[in-house]
Amino acid sequence: MLGIRPATGAGQVADYDTARSSIAAAGGKAHERTLTRGGVRPTALWSHGVLSHVPGRPDATGAVPHVPVLLAEVLEALNAQSGGTFLDGTFGAGGYTRGILGANRQNRVVGVDRDPDAIAAGETLVAWARGRLQLCPGRFGDLDRIAETCGAAPLDGVVLDIGVSSMQLDQAERGFSFRTDGPLDMRMERSGPSAADLVNETEEGALADIIYQYGEERRSRAIARAIVERRRRGRIETTGELADLVAKHVRGEPGVNPATRTFQALRIAVNDELGQLTAALEAAERVLKPGARLAIVTFHSLEDRIVKQFMQERTRRVPRGSRHVPDLTHSEPATFTAITKGPIAAGAEELAANPRARSAKLRVAERTDSPAPTVSTDVSGKSRRGGR
Ligand SMILES: C[S@@+](CC[C@H](N)C(=O)[O-])C[C@H]1O[C@@H](n2cnc3c(N)ncnc32)[C@H](O)[C@@H]1O
């Protein structure tokens, strides 16, 4: 078992903006907890060049770069020091990928991201890795097909760090943030319907449902009503307009922007984030070798619930699945074994250096040699027979 530091459980809020703004203020001390296995010390990660900057401190340009959350725990969870071929399904700024490549000189990584900017920015790392890193634009819901296309299947490990990156939040024109005014966009892929399309064209009841289900926002109906009234005067086109409108109807918790939950809901809907996560778990099940590891970091309860239910069901720790995870029949053996009893959370020192880590939960499971089930789930959460 990994050294388990249980996550705190209920009440996770994906308040990335608030966390991000506190990173610089908190200073840059990375936590130094010694792990029970693997022996990777987080402070060693940057001092040996695995991280390109001191976590939490501004880089040479003055910006605070994306700080990978639970990096040492993820490397240990993946058994990255033992060597193998890994898929980082959320490449982002390449923090996990750098860590995996640095953990063993034989390691190979397939880095996947649906954001073309992340893939383009990763080219420097590709050159640095000298043939050990392949970057693939795409969605992690297709990770098994991507690994096969790259000649990397079967894999020794898959890691996902769900959500948006600091780079995406920092660029006002990407429209993810309520802190800086920008076009109401939120498309990780820069294509398809935007958040503005959703906000301006969705019928009131459906809009309220999205805000309630994906944002867990109790004031969803009032917000949807206000949006529909406001759009009679013209389209809502900017993050600032929407944030101001929401703030008139939501009191918010201390230190948390009232628009946090609404923005989370729209981002999840625009990018079909929960459908992608469900598809990715099943894709990983198909493409991991026996003994390979699946490590998933989530930042809010909706995502964590899907991962938790998948792992419970596939390790046969619960008799039946959820809406998102179809049942294995009782004749089918477990496809995963549990590596951690519960989620792993960041320690005090990492939290001090990176407040974004406060809602992070890492869950880990190890693939058995049982075949993947032939029941699969489409991205809307409905089960279908026959697999791919
Ligand atoms: C939290 S960041 C990952 C940061 C990364 N672990 C690091 O250390 O730099 C999440 C990244 O995942 C990407 N992403 C989100 N959903 C995705 C999906 N369905 N398929 C592929 N990439 C996705 C986002 O574009 C973003 O770059």
Q: Overview of this structure, please?
A:
With 388 residues, the chain is α/β, with parallel strands linked by helices. The chain folds into 2 domains: 65-161 and 274-367, Vaccinia Virus protein VP39 (Rossmann fold), CATH 3.40.50.150; 169-271, Putative methyltransferase TM0872, insert domain (DNA polymerase, domain 1, Orthogonal Bundle). It is 37% helix and 13% strand. The protein has helices spanning 16-26, 42-47, 71-77, 95-103, 116-121, 123-129, 143-149, 166-170, 195-201, 204-215, 220-230, 239-247, 260-270, 273-287, 301-314, 348-353, and strands at 85-88, 108-113, 133-137, 155-161, 288-298, 336-338, 361-367, 375-377, 383-385. A 7-stranded mixed beta sheet has the order 3-2-1-4-5-7-6, sandwiched between helices. Strand 8 (375-377) and strand 9 (383-385) form a beta hairpin. It is globular, with a radius of gyration of 20 Å. The site of S-adenosylmethionine (SAM) has 23 residues, from helix 4 and strand 2.
Brief summary of the model shown:
The protein is built from 16 helices and 9 strands. By secondary structure, it is of the alpha/beta class.
Look at the structure and give the CATH class of the largest domain: Alpha Beta
Could you estimate the helical fraction of the residues in percent?
A: 25-40%
Structural domains: how many: 2
Q: Find the count of extended strands (DSSP E, 2+ residues).
A: 9
SSE pattern: HHHEHEHHEHEHHHHHHHEHEHEEE
Q: How would you name the oligomeric state of the polypeptide chains in this document?
A: single chain
Average pLDDT taken over every residue: 83
CATH superfamily of the largest domain: Vaccinia Virus protein VP39
Looking at CATH, which topology of the largest domain would you report? Rossmann fold
Main structural class: alpha/beta
Count helical runs.
16
Straight-line N-to-C gap: 33 Å
Main β sheet profile: 7 strands, mixed
Name of the CATH architecture of the largest domain: 3-Layer(aba) Sandwich
The radius of gyration is 20 Å
| Distinct bound molecules | S-adenosylmethionine
Overall 3D form = globular
The low-pLDDT segments are 1-6, 8-56, 58-64, 378-388
